[in-house]
Every structure is written in C-alpha cells, then in structure tokens.
Design brief:
By secondary structure, this protein is mostly helical. Helices cover 67% and strands 0% of the residues. The protein folds into 2 domains: 88 residues, Orthogonal Bundle (Rna Polymerase Sigma Factor, Chain: A); 121 residues, no CATH class. The protein has 12 helices and no strands. Belongs to the sigma-70 factor family. ECF subfamily. It holds the Pfam family Sigma70_r4_2.
C-alpha cells in the first residue's frame, strides 16, 4: 500500500488510518480542525469548552477508525455528526452532575434550560421538520405554530376540518419520529443500521408488525441498540420537539 501524503484525498487517508497509519490521522486532523472548531463555537455556550469538545470528537472518530468502523468517505460530515452527539451527551451529563447552592432555578415554576442543549435540540427539531412532506409541514405550521384550528384552515387546504385534524395528527407523529431519529448515531453493522433507522418509529409505536418483530428479535441480542433505545426514550420524555416549534422553519 502506497503511504498517503499531505495532499492525498480524505478517502486514502481514512484507509491508511484503518491500516494503522496514525500520521494519516494527523493529516486529517490538521485539514479539518478549523471547520471543527467553527462548529464547536456554535454548539457550546462557553468558548472555553471548544478545545475539549474538538479533542473529544477527534478522539472518538479515531477510535472508531482504528476499530474498523467509522466513515469510508465524507470524513468532515461524519466528524460534525459525531461532534453534535458528543456535545449533546456532554450537556445531558453535565446537567445531571451540576452542583450549585442556587436551587431557585429548579423550582417547578421556573424550569432550567441549558442553553447549549436547547440550541442543539432546536437544530434537531428543524432538521426533522425539513424532512416532512410539504403538505405535512404546511398543516403543522398552520396548527402548531400559527395556532389556527382545523376549521380555520380547512377552506384554504380544500379539506374538511376533520380531515385537517387527521392530517395534523399524522404530521405531528411524523415530526416526533424524525426528531427522535436525529439523536441516533449511525451504526456499522447492517442489522444495527436497519434498527437505528427505525428507532424513532419504534418508540412511537409506528412500525408494521413484521418490522416490529424484527426489531424485538434484534434488541434481545444487541446491547448497543438497547442502549440507543434507552437514550432516545429518555429524550422523548424530556425534549418534545413542539417546545421549539417557533424555530422549526429556520436553520436551527
């Protein structure tokens, strides 16, 4: 195998890292560090956390590559996705471990919202919203964001109020499943990828019976996917996408 140099494409460098060439990963690091730092500044609330977030992200991707997993192409996209998940899980962990003498913000009347976590959740909600069919986006915007009733928009959509209500319900369920799906890191094993692509629908009870049986069989033997289910089940309880509904049409 020809050893890649600093001008080699990312795909050659990724193959070299998998073959044990740590210097190739150093080249990837130098090539993509600036973009990673720029993304990190947009994700964290304290600039002092940027370097730690970048370092942890690169370390996780390196470990995946050395284990024979990780990206074959599109290194930067994979790196950015990993960073968003690292940031999200760090925010959740820090929120659980926070020590403070000021308990007033945890009063029931004034729930505390972590700014970095909230910003990332809005990004996930916006990405999910953009994946909905156009008609679903329209009815969801009219009902959930503008606050119009089905009767008020039925004429505009050329539907009966009951049909609008049914469509709005389907749109909300679709948004919920896609929102949860944003939290699932891409798996490497084909059956894990199949499972990961359907975890949002699984938690919402929207899988067809045949797929549901396949899901149950897989979860019985795969501990990693069971952990993913537990994580997004917790997210489903804590972070409904409708809280960020006024931001859903924006880029995050």
């Amino acid at each position: 195998m020809t050893m890649p140099d600093n001008d080699s494409p990312d795909t050659d460098l990724l193959a070299a890292v998998r073959a044990g060439d740590t210097a190739a990963y150093g080249t990837l690091y130098e090539r993509h560090r600036g973009a990673a730092r720029q993304l990190a500044y947009g994700l964290v609330s304290d600039p002092a956390d940027v370097d730690d977030l970048v370092a942890e992200t690169f370390a996780k991707v390196f470990a995946s590559l050395r284990a024979g997993r990780g990206p074959l192409v599109a290194f930067r996209a994979y790196l950015h996705t990993t960073m968003r998940h690292v940031c999200y899980h760090r925010a959740r962990r820090d929120r659980r471990l926070e020590f403070t003498d000021d308990l007033s913000r945890y009063d029931e009347g004034q729930p505390y919202t972590d700014p970095a976590l909230d910003r990332l959740e809005r990004t996930y909600a916006a990405a999910a919203f953009r994946q909905l069919p156009e008609r679903w986006r329209d009815v969801l915007w009219q009902t959930a964001v503008e606050g119009n009733s089905p009767a008020e928009i039925a004429g505009t959509l050329g539907m009966t109020p009951n049909a609008v209500a049914v469509l709005a319900h389907r749109a909300r369920e679709g948004l919920r499943s896609l929102y949860l799906q944003q939290h699932v890191t891409t798996a490497e094993h084909p059956e894990c990828r199949w499972t990961g692509d359907r975890l949002g629908a699984h938690l919402r009870g929207r899988l067809a019976p045949r797929d549901n049986n396949r899901m149950r069989v897989h979860l019985r033997w795969c501990g990693e996917c069971r952990k993913r289910v537990a994580e997004i089940a917790e997210i489903s309880e804590i972070h409904p996408p409708y809280r960020q509904r006024h931001h859903a049409g924006s880029g995050g």
